[in-house]
Structure formats: C-alpha cells, structure tokens
C-alpha cells in the first residue's frame, strides 16, 4: 500500500515556489502551436509559344515523381500542349504540341487520366469536325492516337468535351458541354480503344435536368456516377446529379439557388464514403462561393465553408482529400487578392490558408484548378492561370504543414517542471 498523507489546503509548496517555471512552461507550451504556413514554390513558369500558356481549370496528374498536365493555349501553334515535369521542377518536357488540324485536337481540357503506361485525355476543339477529340498516347508522348472525334451531328454524339475521362471497369466515362438532344450537353462512355462510343444521357435543361457541364469529372461509386452541370435545375443555377452507369435513372439530387447555396458549379465532385463534397465558385451567403457536402441520395446538404475576402474567394476547382483533410484553391481573395491554397477538415472546421499568391513575376496568380497530393502527403501541386515570369501561368508546389504532436508542448512543460523540482531539491540540501 502507498502511504497516505493528509490533504493539504491551498497551493502545493512546490507549485507555489516554482511559479516562474510554471509560467515559462505554459508560455512555451502555447508557442508550440501549429507551424507558420509558408508560400508556394514556382516549379515552372510558362512562356507562351515555347511551352504552353494559361492553364485554365487544369489539374496535374502525378505518376511516380513526374507531373503530367496540359495548357489549352500556347505552344508553337497556339493550340495548347501536353507536358511533363519532375516534382522538383526539373526536366520540363513538351510531350505534344497541338495543331488544331482535323487529325489532331486543340485546347486540351481537364486532367490527364493515366492507365498503365498510357495517357488518356480530351481536347475542347479541333478534330475531324472541329468539336473536340478524345485521344490516347504513351507517357513519353509517342503513339498519339485519336479515339473519337466529337461533333458527328444529331443526338448520337456530343460537342466540345469538358473535364476528364473517368475510367471504371472496362469503360471510360466523360461529358460534353454541348450536343445531344437540345444541344445542352451529354454524358458518354466508350472503350479505351475508342470503340463502343455511346451517348448515355442528353441534358435537356429545366427543373429535372441540367445544362452545359463545364470542367468537371464524373465521380463513380459502384454502379452509379455523379456529377454537376453549370445550369439547369429548379432555379437554373446548376445541379448535382446521379445516374446509373448504363444511362438510366438520371436524378437531380440538388438544385442550387445562388444566394443560399451558390451557383454555376465548374469543378468535380469528390466522393468520400457515402458523401459527396464540392465547391461552388460563386454565390452563397458571402457571395464569394462555398464548400459543401451532401449524402449520395441528395439529403443532408451542408455548407462547410463560405468564402470571402482575405480568406479567399471564387473556388473554381474541386476538393482534394488527404486523410481527414480537404484541400483546394480559390482564384481570388487572399492577402493579395490573387488567389489562395487552403485546407480544412471534412466537417469544414479548422479552415486554414496555406498560401496566398502575390501575382508578382516570381509567383503565380489566379489558380482555377485543383491540387494534387504527393504520395507521402507532404506536398500539394497545382497550376495558376496567370503570373510567373511571362504572366502565362505557373506550375507550383505548396508544403503541407505537418501537424505538431499534441505531446510536444507537454514534454516541454514537463521538462521545465522537472528542472524546477531539481532546483528545489538542491536548495533543500543546502
């Protein structure tokens, strides 16, 4: 049994005699909060005709230590390029310079999908009918092949593809901004070799459909796909929709109303478990856009964060997940009104700016796409539409601040208390 002692009233003699140590330890513990957040690092500045320009709503795709991306403008023909660059900014390589010819495309759009050793993508224009094309090529840029030319006419095809193609099973799924019945856009599927092209759904507008999907990519879960359209719905401010992979069961899951929950979605939905997460580039209570979540059936629509002012405005892209954190960009706002990179928890709490762009020659401006996370979860990669040395945009990285262990402050606190205890013992021996 441990010996018992009478309870002592008032401050313990040790704490009473070591107040200055306790105060110092407390101060040190408080100072051991989150790390100060740094700015972005420019990995590459685009120069226009030489290597691409103005990456609008583009997303980088990471494979190993190499980033793959596109710019819709620039290159020797001003029709856009495909490129690769190492994650440290070295070895920037032009993989493809588009010409806009009937055997080629123009204005590459969205993120590149990497399957094995091949890259799949789309162009908004060019191709045989001038309405865009789907293509495939090897990672080194060789073997470029047109899989499908959009704009064949009638309701059997779409015009001007947007976003990226999503692989699922043995199919690729994507969207066009126009074409189909009523020329309001389509959802399609095809095989990776370009065969079996099928228009799964044609947008028709109105309260029960959408109009003109923009730069988003379809999210797929089981036998369902989910996406957003820029307009349509009950208030004509855009929708979230769900549909079976075979094109049946199209359902408007949520209609945006601008003032309450935003308008004009541009990006993609992020699927996390049984919930969808997304960004609205405008509208909302603060007018600067918002982040939201909802269940797969459209229920429990929740505003996670309202963007405004120095906290960033106009989140044009999509959210990216790492653990329990969401990351994204805003094209405006921040300390310099030139856009931001942010993080927050899945429930919208702990919103933090990781970087505010300056728009100076050594920095980027106006990030309109999404960010990509490094395999070890320590770095974000993205692009800005303008800024850089030639004001033609940049590829950038931002370090993700490592959370400081909660015990760090307590360790320092305990160390100071032990030092105080040793001092008291030394004084007692004198």
UniProtKB/TrEMBL annotation:
Keywords of the record: Signal
Highest taxon, organism lineage: Bacteria
Signal peptide bounds: 1-38
PROSITE patterns xref list: PROKAR_LIPOPROTEIN
The protein's name in its UniProt record: PEP-CTERM protein-sorting domain-containing protein
């Amino acid at each position: 049994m441990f010996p018992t002692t009478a309870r002592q009233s008032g401050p313990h003699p040790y704490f009473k005699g070591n107040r200055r140590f306790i105060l110092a330890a407390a101060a040190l513990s408080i100072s051991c909060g989150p790390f100060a957040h740094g700015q972005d690092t420019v990995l590459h500045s685009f120069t226009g005709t030489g290597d691409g320009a103005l990456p609008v709503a583009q997303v980088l795709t990471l494979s190993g230590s190499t980033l793959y991306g596109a710019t819709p403008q620039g290159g020797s023909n001003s029709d856009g390029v495909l490129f690769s660059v190492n994650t440290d900014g070295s070895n920037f390589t032009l993989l493809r310079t588009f010409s806009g010819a009937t055997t080629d495309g123009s204005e590459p759009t969205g993120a590149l999908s990497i399957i094995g050793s091949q890259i799949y993508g789309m162009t908004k224009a060019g191709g045989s009918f001038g309405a865009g094309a789907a293509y495939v090529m090897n990672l080194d840029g060789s073997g470029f092949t047109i899989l499908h030319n959009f704009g064949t006419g009638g309701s059997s095809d779409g015009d001007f593809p947007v976003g990226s193609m999503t692989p699922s099973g043995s199919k690729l799924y994507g969207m066009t901004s126009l074409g189909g019945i009523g020329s309001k856009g389509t959802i399609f599927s095809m095989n990776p070799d370009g065969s079996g092209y099928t228009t799964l759904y044609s947008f028709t507008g109105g309260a029960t459909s959408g109009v003109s999907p923009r730069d988003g990519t379809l999210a797929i879960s089981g036998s369902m796909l989910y996406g957003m359209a820029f307009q349509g719905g009950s208030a004509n401010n855009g929708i979230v929709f769900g549909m079976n992979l075979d094109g049946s069961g199209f359902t408007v899951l949520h209609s945006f109303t601008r003032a309450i929950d935003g308008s004009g979605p541009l990006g993609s939905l992020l699927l996390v478990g049984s919930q969808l997460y997304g960004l609205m580039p405008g509208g909302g209570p603060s007018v600067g856009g918002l982040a939201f979540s909802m269940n797969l059936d459209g229920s429990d629509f929740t505003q996670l964060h309202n963007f405004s002012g120095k906290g960033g405005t106009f989140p044009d892209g999509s959210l990216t997940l790492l653990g329990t954190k969401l990351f994204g960009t805003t094209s405006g706002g921040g300390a310099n009104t030139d856009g931001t990179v942010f993080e927050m928890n899945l429930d919208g709490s702990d919103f933090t700016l990781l970087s505010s762009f300056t728009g100076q020659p050594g920095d980027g401006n106006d990030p309109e796409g999404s960010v990509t996370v490094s395999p070890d979860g320590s770095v974000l990669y993205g692009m800005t539409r303008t800024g850089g040395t030639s004001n033609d945009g940049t590829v950038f990285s931002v370090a993700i601040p490592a959370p400081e262990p909660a015990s760090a402050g307590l360790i320092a606190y305990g160390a100071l208390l032990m030092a105080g205890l040793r001092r008291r013992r030394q004084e007692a021996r004198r």
